[in-house]
Amino acid sequence: MPHPISLAFLTTFEASPVEAVRIAAKAGYDMVGLRILPAAASGEPDYPLLSDDRTLREVLAALADTGVTVGDMEIIRLKAENDWDLFARFCERGAALKAKHVLVAGDDTDPARLTASFARFCELAERHGLTADLEFMPWTAVPDAAVALRIVEDAAQPNGGVLVDALHWDRSRTTLEDIAALPRNRLHYVQFCDGTVPYDPSDEGLIRVARGERLMPGEGGIDLIALARVIPEDITISVEIPHRELATKIDALGRAEMAIAATRAILRAAGRA
C-alpha cells in the first residue's frame, strides 16, 4: 500500500488554510496539515481558523470540493502551566475538520509533570477522535525518541504517539534502530525533509534550520532512504520543508510540487512507491 502523503503547514507557510487545501489538491497530496495555534511564544500571529467560523466554513468547503483531508493540526506546546480551555477549543476545531493527528511539543523540564500533562491532553484529544503525537526535538524537554517513547508509554493513553521528524532524527541521539523499534501503535505519521551535513549543532542553529532552511528530500545528507525502509509501509508521510529563501523565488504551489516529487523519488529508491 503506498504511503499517504500530507502537505505540512510549514512547506507552504505563507498560504491561507483554504489556499493550502487547494495547493495540496493540485500538487497531488492526499492530506494537508493546518496550523491552528502559534508555534512560538511570541512574534507569531494568531491563526483565524481557531475562532473564525467563516474561515472554518471556507476550509470545509475546499476540503469537500477537492477530496483532500486534514492530516495533522499544529501545535500544542505543553508547558509547566497550560491553558486547557484553549486546548479544548483547539480539539473541537480538529473534530470539525475531521483531522487525524495533533502535533505536540514538550517544553516542561519536569518529566513527571510533562507526562501527566501529555496524558491529560491525550484524553482530551481522544474525545474528539484525534491522536496526540509527541515530537522529539533536540533543543526541547523531549530531545530524542527514547525520551518521547518513555513519556508516551508512561502516559498510557491509547491515542498517544511518537512523532518522528527526519531532521530531528538526524540531529538527535536517536538511531535508525531506535526508530525501527518504536511500537507500531505509537507511530501515526512521520515528517520528511532533508538537511545539510555537517550542520551547526547549537540550539540556535538547529532551530534556524528547522524553521526556515530545510531542504527537499535528496538534496542534503540525511539518509531518508534508510528511514523510509524502517517506517511502517502504510504510515502517512507529512512533507515538512520550510525554506524561507526558496519562498522568495518559487511560489507555494511550485514548492509543494517539488516537495512531493522529491518525496516520491525517495520512496521509489526505498522500494516503497
Structural features, described:
Keywords: Isomerase. InterPro entries: IolE/XylAMocC-like (IPR050312), Xyl_isomerase-like_sf (IPR036237), Xyl_isomerase-like_TIM-brl (IPR013022). This is Sugar phosphate isomerase/epimerase. With 273 residues, the chain is an alpha/beta fold. The protein has helices spanning 17-27, 53-66, 84-97, 111-126, 145-155, 166-171, 176-180, 203-212, 224-230, 244-247, 252-269, and strands at residues 5-7, 31-35, 69-78, 101-106, 131-135, 160-165, 189-192, 236-239. Helix content is 42%, strand content 16%. It has an 8-stranded parallel barrel, surrounded by 5 helices. Helix 4 (111-126) links the parallel strand 4 (101-106) and strand 5. Helix 1 packs parallel to helix 2, helix 1 crosses helix 11 (252-269) and helix 4 (111-126) crosses helix 5.
Briefly summarize what is shown.
42% of the residues lie in helices and 16% in strands. The chain contains eleven helices and eight strands.
Which helices and strands occur, and which strands form pairs?
Elements: E1 5-7, H1 17-27, E2 31-35, H2 53-66, E3 69-78, H3 84-97, E4 101-106, H4 111-126, E5 131-135, H5 145-155, E6 160-165, H6 166-171, H7 176-180, E7 189-192, H8 203-212, H9 224-230, E8 236-239, H10 244-247, H11 252-269
Parallel strand pairs: 1-2, 1-8, 2-3, 3-4, 4-5, 5-6, 6-7, 7-8
Helix pairs in contact: 1-2, 1-11, 4-5
Domain Xylose isomerase-like TIM barrel: 21-251
Pfam families: AP_endonuc_2
GO molecular function, one term: isomerase activity
